[in-house]
Fold each of these.
Amino acid sequence: MRKKPSILLADDNTAILDVVSRLLRSHQCNVIARVNDGAIVVKECLRLRPEVIVLDISMDTLNGIDLARELVLCGCSSKIIFLSVHEDSDFVNAAMGAGGSAYVVKSRVATDLCAAIDAVLIDKRYLSPTMLYHAGTS
């Protein structure tokens, strides 16, 4: 049996945090923190050192793309999985360019998030399949 990966969840929507927490616990993940304010994500990451950060791309205080850049600059080694409602390739390109390892569309969180975690833990990238379709048609 594999070790439970440590996950920090960051989303300004409490309902999303609840849903994602339940999903990850059922996938044998250890949710070590739930953060709903972008301004404290970096501090919590440096304090807790999670293996994976699931990061909302559109948070109120500080958006996920800017947060990812800040995390990289601070030397955070966590894998970053973006969670977003946006299905636009510009968002994907910006997110991955800022240090993301995966991009999961919120409408597919139940089917894609656990696959994304599994992929990033073995140093692979992951995009929700709908994003692959959009990327192929642009």
Amino acid sequence: MVVQADLSDVEVDRIFHALADRTRRDIVRRTLLGERSVSELAAAYAMSFAAVQKHVVVLEGAGLVTKENRGRARLVRADPARIAKARDLLDAYADLWRGRIDRLDALLADDDQT
């Protein structure tokens, strides 16, 4: 079984690279609850505004969040559709491994009966 996704290998790499960082996962979580300004996000972490902005840029590059300028504020919002695509990919991998384990179990059961 080949895992198919409507994401390119480059897109998958970007998504999982972005989600490999704890702060970026937290930013995604916060922005799923509602849009937040970069300043608001920066206030939640013991790091500079610039560091948080860099995290947002990585998430934006992966398509996990979008950023919109409204006046002086830069508002960040998670993209649930993109996150769902990543989840679908993980579900496909889980199905692949479940199938392999089921075949291994069947093979071992046949071996026990002979």
Amino acid sequence: MRGGLRWVADGLFPTGANPHGVLPALLILLALVTGLVDAVSYLCLNRVFVANMTGNVVFLGFALAGADELSKWASPLALASFATGAWSAGRAARRTADARRAFAAATAAHALLVAAAFVVAAVAGHHETGAQAALIALLGCGMGVQNASVRALAVPDLTTNVLTTTLTGLAADTPGRAARRRFVSVAAMFLGALAGAALHLTAGPAPALGAALVLLMSVALVARRRSGHGS
């Protein structure tokens, strides 16, 4: 598996120019996670995102202006949860000099939060306000952790949360390996959203969250093993 991940990661950079080991391939998997969980949150949790905070800021403005189909509490909760997760991951990262080890720990923490959300969705469902609030808080916090830990790695042109800048670079810059990395980020998030929506619409939110959990556990395991090898 690790050999395949390294092959994918190396293919995103010029020959011999990948200093990040398997991390670029792991970030692709995290972009899939983003699509999965945002599909769940938007389709069943009061039209809110748990990863795309730009959307939540806009939705909050719409709700305060009187758009009845949008919740006045869901977007602020998602924003606060995301910020809490990002703050926690940033503080933890500052306590260790090894960004890759911090990334592995952050991904494991994210997996625990998604596991808790999976239990909530499976046991309490997603129709009651309390269950919705718990799911938004858990998933939003997890995505904040993910975004902060990925940001600290500083792998160029591979984003796992927000694609506006990525799409701008993809359209405006000269084609090359950077464009390939950007395209892969966009494609991974799209495929995650497609799969998450399909799973939710046919079987509810729990299967999509289960898929996200499997991906996160896999990323955390590989990242933990590779952090000790420096590749």
